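Shift notes (night). Ran Putative G-protein coupled receptor 160 while the centrifuge was going.
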Amino acid sequence: MAAIQCENCSGQYHSTHVQQPLEISCMLLLIILGKVFLEFFMLQVKQKKVKVSFMEYFCVSLALLDFTLLLSISFIFYFEDFALWGVRFTKYHICLFTQIISLTYSIVHYPVYLVAGLDYYMTVAQTSQFPGRGHRILYVLAVVIIWISGFFCILKVPAVYEELEIQNHFSPYQCPLYASLQSYSVSCAVVLLVGTALLACWKEVLSMLLSVRVISFSSQPVLLFSYVSNSSSTSFKRQLLPRLLVCFLGTWAPFVLLQVIILFLGARIPAYMEMNVPWLYFINSFLIAVAYWCRCQDVELTEEMWSTDAFVSWKFCFMPFNNENTEPADKLGTVVVIC
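Came back to this:
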């Protein structure tokens, strides 16, 4: 990978000095700086009292990893050419480190979403806000295993290593980065599922939106929906679906629209930019909605249940609701409030 073995370095290597244009290194530094700022901003503005989950741990680990990358490339950008532990670092390594991160991010989407989906499916009906130490240890181990496995696949698979070496050899003044096929397929699936759900219950969603009113509750403005399904024979899941859509799109509609535009234009975003905390929170809300819909009969109407999502309030999807499992007094309510 444009490197030569150093006879006195005990297996370490030196990189041949490549004068990469200043613009490329500076652009990567500024992009990663903006990404890190956005990620820590999202972690700061999210709701603090949220049930601990695997995705929360992974979001924190991603922000810390991006921050470590930012510090590394900032150090290289400032000193330009230096040796550390027998290895010579130049601005070429800014591109190399970013490429490795991009390749790693591109292959961890499926494992992360699979583990997060299983986590929510098994715990969405639990009312405890603070899982035991065993759950927390499992979350940490899952995050560590995913990252180690990702880096191992990128750094140890010969085909990937040879591709990096060839591209950096023939284009030393460029920095070819990689888009994620996994992220592209997940984005397609989310847009397709949300679109299908909207087509299936567009009348109910439209009726709910037309019934919305802004009122004052405890000196705070809230949205009030007075719509209730006219069909008493409609299944519980069928009645729940439009409410989940209104909740989800009420927060993430701009993000869904952005995904549609990106897919329509065929834009390929580098993986180191595509894997970010806002995107993970978007997928997190989608997975929570799917888990609520799949296990709606098991959801208990307690205050602790509604601290699952850091950005979306799912409370109004279930309270009040014409559910056969609720008491008669609860069935009288036809007004839904989103705070």
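The chain has one domain: 24-317. Residues 1-21, 321-339 have pLDDT under 50 and may be disordered.
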